[in-house]
Design a protein that fits this description.
Blueprint: H1 3-15, H2 18-39, H3 43-57
Helix pairs in contact: 2-3
């Protein structure tokens, strides 16, 4: 992974919080699943994105 991408993510976390970034990732996963279902008729991949969203949702961050 390129260092510049890591720096970008670190900057976003610093400006928001890790919890906020995880919440955004969860929402993105749900939206990707919805898009796959509605526009690509790809239930298999949609389920994987939903699973990722649930896993992110279960992460507890106290930072």
């Amino acid at each position: 992974m390129k260092w510049e991408y890591i720096e970008v993510v670190e900057t976003v976390i610093d400006k928001l919080t890790l919890a906020a970034v995880l919440e955004m990732l969860e929402r993105i996963c749900h939206k990707k699943a919805e898009n796959l279902r509605n526009h690509w008729d790809d239930e298999t991949t949609a389920k994987l994105w939903e699973k990722a969203a649930r896993q992110i949702e279960n992460i507890n961050v106290d930072i």
